[in-house]
Amino acid sequence: MYAELSLYEKYAVVPGTRVDLSQIDPNDTGDFATKKDARKALKKLRKKLVDLQERFYAWDARSILIVLQAMDTGGKDGTIEHVMQGTNPQGVEVTSFKVPTAEELAHDFLWRVHKAVPPRRMIGIFNRSHYEDVLVVRVHNLVPETVWRKRYEQINDFERLLSENGVVLLKFYLHISRDEQARRLQARLDDPNKRWKFSKGDLEERALWDDYMAAYTDALSLCSTPHAPWFVVPANHKWYRNYVVASILVETLEQLNPQFPPPEENLDDVVVV
After folding, report:
1. Domains: count for the chain
2. What is the per-residue pLDDT across 231-252, written as a single tens digit (0 to 9) for each?
3. Which of 31, 43, 219, 240 is deepest in the core (most CB within 10 A)?
4. Hey, is 252 helix, strand or coil?
């Protein structure tokens, strides 16, 4: 009998292979039959994550960089909120990458990214990332193909540099269907408290769905490496998306096995008065 694959193994893009997003079901819910079961399992995972994060912070030997990419409404914000719930905010940094400023455009495309890489003991989360420079930049023809084509190799070199200097990289593509995106966009329009999230530009981006799928296919296929793997996370069901990301993060921390540093010597006879 073969051992069951971990979610890390199940959803990782194998380095050197070409991913086919059309063959990955965004409605997948793994072994869960109900949302209730998945939420119970996530609650247990969070307890493990809180303990592991405390040890990781004290260990002060590595850092973790989580990259979140998705189409609009894919759930990047929700993933951060629900997966990291209960962790110590002192040990977590979230960076959101918007349209580059004039200063950022005056440098190479990785300049603003490198500055945001988390230091030792921290878990850093990129809400969008350097991959925008082979996604939106490519789809909107913001630079010539001769420029963005080189960036896959440059990104791999950059991520190898980070890995060799103690950064553990986990990259998640939150995979939703086009129909699910339509439903979520409509829900924003229908809810007065969420309408502020909606922009007519979202519809313009949605019209480029096929172009984005081609761009994501190349990014996932060309930039999933042993030291910086990509994971394609089924994300039509938010509760399963959260469970998968939390599970992979916990598995990674367990493999790292962070330990509390040894205490100062000769403390047994110390009395606080």
Report:
1. 1
2. 999 999 999 999 999 999 999 9
3. 219
4. helix
